[in-house]
Specification:
single chain, 14 helices, disordered C terminus, two-stranded antiparallel sheet, mainly alpha, globular
Length: 324
């Protein structure tokens, strides 16, 4: 497996893990506490990573971490849950699937990644595939729900782009940066959750097990892999892994909850998965014409070097000596 394929595979584990959130929420957690669930996902995971890495932001990274935490977690979670409560699950997933289109536009504005026909086409195709998987006939639309879904997708998309733009400070690992963002995002959610939902509910052992999975497996590890992958991939390629989440949720619903999975849903999975794969393929580079051979070549050296960001750069050097 190439280094790029390994980066993509590890990063893909994040949205695949997020696809299990619906199952865990409905089967293990108390009902009607979405903000408290968001808080329990983010803050314990962030504090655990801070304790593990023992690194705090310095200088400008205090406000950068706050901004990234708010975009990726603090604003994203409440808006996502609001959309989920105001819209049928399929409609909410389709609204959220426009994220790749937001990323294409924001990446062009802030990262200089020029939109291409391929990036736009794969984003639209992925959204279409997701709609076939999750959208039911006669689904109702709610203006506030749709607005919340679009804003949650925009928030996450902006978080991806600025995570890519700012990178991380020298000497700080991706694990520490993940802890900063999760803690900041959790602190944003904390007052909102208590203001709207009140005091925490009484928790059972099943509830605690569900929250433990969401905080550490579904959030701490998954967001570490996600932010690490964003550093090594283009923003548009990373966000096109997003459709793996609703695909995973549909498969879990079929296997664990006995939910129907018909021909249309399977077709939608194949379309969305195909668009995801297409989004990871590098564009072909034009071959450079070969220079005419020298009359006599005394020595040819070739070597390949692997650069950062998971890209392999091949370099061929020719050292020629022409004897008269």
């Amino acid at each position: 497996m190439s280094r790029k394929a390994a980066v993509v595979a590890l990063t893909a584990l994040a949205p695949i893990s997020w696809g299990s959130t619906y199952f865990v929420t409905t089967e293990f957690l108390p009902a009607d506490r979405p903000l408290f669930t968001g808080l329990m996902r983010a803050l314990p995971a962030g504090l655990a990573l801070l304790a593990l890495t023992r690194k705090l932001p310095q200088g400008a990274w205090w406000w950068k971490s706050a901004v990234l935490g708010a975009l990726n977690i603090g604003a994203f979670f409440p808006l996502l849950f609001l959309a989920a409560y105001r819209l049928p699950g399929g409609v909410a997933a389709v609204v959220g699937s426009v994220g790749p289109l937001f990323v294409v536009g924001l990446a062009a504005l802030f990262l200089g990644e020029k939109p291409t026909v391929k990036s736009l086409l794969t984003a639209v195709t992925a959204a279409f595939g997701v709609s076939l998987v999750v959208l039911k006939a006669g689904a109702a639309f709610d203006t506030i729900g749709v607005a919340a879904g679009l804003l949650s997708s925009l928030s996450m998309s902006a978080g991806i782009v600025f995570t890519k733009r700012w990178g991380r400070p020298e000497g700080v690992g991706a694990l520490a940066l993940t802890g900063w963002q999760l803690t900041a995002g959790g602190l944003v959610i904390l007052p909102i959750a208590f203001l709207i939902e009140g005091a925490p509910p009484a928790l059972t052992g099943t509830n605690l097990a569900g929250y433990a999975y969401l905080a550490f497996g579904n959030t701490a590890i998954s967001y570490f892999l996600w932010f690490r992958g964003i550093e090594r991939m283009s923003a548009s390629s990373a966000t096109l892994l997003g459709p793996l989440s609703p695909i995973t949720a549909a498969v879990i619903g079929w296997v664990a909850l006995g939910q129907a999975l018909g021909t249309v849903q399977v077709l939608g999975m194949l379309i969305a998965f195909g668009a995801t794969l297409a989004g990871q393929l590098s564009p072909r580079t034009a071959k450079t014409p070969q220079a005419p051979e020298a009359p006599q070549v005394s020595e040819v050296e070739s070597f390949s070097a692997t650069e950062k960001n998971g890209q392999e750069v091949s370099m061929d050097l020719e050292v020629s000596e022409v004897r008269r």
